[in-house]
Design a protein that fits this description.
Strand content: over 45%
Strand order of the largest sheet: 2-5-6-8-11-12
Structural class: mainly beta
Shape: elongated
Number of helices: 1
Number of domains: 1
Amino acid sequence: MKKNNFLNKALFTVAAIFIATSAIAIPKDPCAPTDVCCEEPAPGPFAFAYPKDVGLSCPRDFYVHGEFLLMKPTEEGLEYAIDQDSSGNPWQFPLVNGKIKGFSTNSDEWDWRYGFRAGFGFYNMHDAWNFSVDWTYIKIKSDSEVSNGTTGVLRGLFLPTFPGLTNITNASSRWSGDCSTMDIMIGKPYHVSRYFVSNPMFGVRVGFIDQDYHVRYFQNDRFERNV
């Protein structure tokens, strides 16, 4: 009885192994449809240049992005005072032998300001052209203050050369505003090598700047003149 039970178990085990081996050995139908939506393409073979795979089988062609910016806005023509040599003519114009003060070219009074850039883009499903739109914004604000340092003659560059306006002791200014730009671009990315993708783009840029410039001149620390 025990011999028969052992023989039955052995035959059952051999049959199970044979069936499992046969099932594994059966080849797949070459014409059966394959699920390509969630498969990641295997890398290679690699050529010198080949089109960028943007996942057109599983649409991942739309994207958004944002960037934090730290910029220093500058502008020419905002000089507002000159420290004139006291030996010069008080009514002399243009002013000479003096040192430009305020927002000059070599001034360190330009302030760093925060801004941001946000945008979105997508790839054309037909031939992978890239379309994108970016918006950049920065808040402008810089302050400056100068004095004659008890020596020399401080002249206001935005004041007429009248004798009563030459005894300026201090001056200050504020430059403020908002700067916005919008870029609409189109490009076609392609692989130059396996690890480098080139995406030359062209498009149009639209900009809007709203700025204010306020200058104050002080005479003997008592009288204030705004420009």
